[in-house]
Amino acid sequence: MPVITCIDDLKRLHKARTPRMFYDYAESGSYSEQTFRDNSTDFARIRLRQKVAVDMSGRSTASDMVGLPVAMPVGLAPVGLTGMQHADGEILAARAAEKFGVPFCLSTMSICSIEDVAQHTTKPFMFQLYVMKDQDFLAAIIERAKRANCNALVLTLDLQILGQRHKDLKNGLSAPPKFTLPTMLDLATRWRWGMGMLQTKRRFFGNIVGHAKGVGDASSLGSWTAEQFDEKLDWDKIARIRDMWGGKLILKGILDPEDARIAADFGADAIVVSNHGGRQLDGALSSIRMLPHIVEAVGDQVEIHMDSGIRSGQDVLKALALGAHGTWIGRAFVHGLGAMGEAGVTRALEVIRAELDTTMALCGEKRVQALGRQNVMLPQGFL
Ligand code: FNR
């Protein structure tokens, strides 16, 4: 068992153990990847304020997200094709999250279906929805999420059209993937992954294949999804989905203070300040830079979460200090999954919690709720 001390260790193992096509799918941003890079580098520009001679005993990272108790305010964000990084990936990640006491959110574009994950876990999880044009599919998937006892619906608003990721096109990553000779050779040499996929009994895109009209098998999936993202999405449609769902609603992909105001007036239970991990609007500012503006606009009206760029407990602390009530990680847990399956996701969470705990102590804070602007120094021009 390799010694894993940070998320970067898991990333290196993920790269070594997973076929290139799937690693690249996770570790890329859209177009020039400017926003993808900024998400990380802007975290690094924020500095922490060290405090000494403060009683740091009895600390706790415990908090809540949309009213649910959490061991630390860090959830596993919805990630499409998680089951490609490791056989049964969504189930393994959901299990790691429930044992750790943090939220897991299943993507619409997952390999394991809502029912698969519900059957193999014991606690409720969240479900992420992309708004599709097919109204029957939309109504049915919301019903399936209710039947599976999902405890919140995360509605993603920043992907009604796909930002191009160059590597995916070059690697032939599509739904289903196109296998060329080089990719076949790559798959064959990553025997560990290959064995895992052979063992899996899950269907490809379990939430969609067999559940949408005209999608009987994976071969018809690509064209269906390409034309199903609803480019006409507007607040009336979001209101209809809220009514159909009836439970807790989190709006994900808000990056603009004006949109945040509309979302807060709309009555969302939480919003996620996010640029989709730099995978959509290339050239947008990083989430961590937009966070303070959104907190200033609606911080007293709605619970604010953020994601995009978090790779450590220090990053989590910085987001909380700038006003986020909760955070989400995407690639940080996917690296763990691709590296070591469920144990890798658990390790990613352990690493982040230990970093958060130590950093809180050195900043002189005992509770995550007490973190604030007093703990950070922002570089000139950051705001
Ligand atoms: C995503 N993300 C995403 N979001 C969503 O709402 N539905 C989805 O299906 C996906 N799929 C997806 C795939 C991959 C490979 C990645 C990396 C991300 C975005 C995700 O929920 C989250 O916003 C980002 O991952 C956060 O950025 P970091 O933590 O990866 O930097």
Automatic annotation (TrEMBL):
One Pfam family, short name: FMN_dh
Organism: Paracoccus homiensis
Binding positions (glyoxylate): Y25, R165, H276, R279
GO (cellular component) term, any one: plasma membrane
Cofactor(s) the protein requires to work: FMN
Binding site for FMN: 78-80, 107, 128, 130, 156, 252, 274, 307-311, 330-331
Name recorded for this polypeptide: L-lactate dehydrogenase (Cytochrome)
Entry keywords, A to Z: Flavoprotein, FMN, Oxidoreductase
NCBIfam families the UniProt entry points to: PRK11197.1
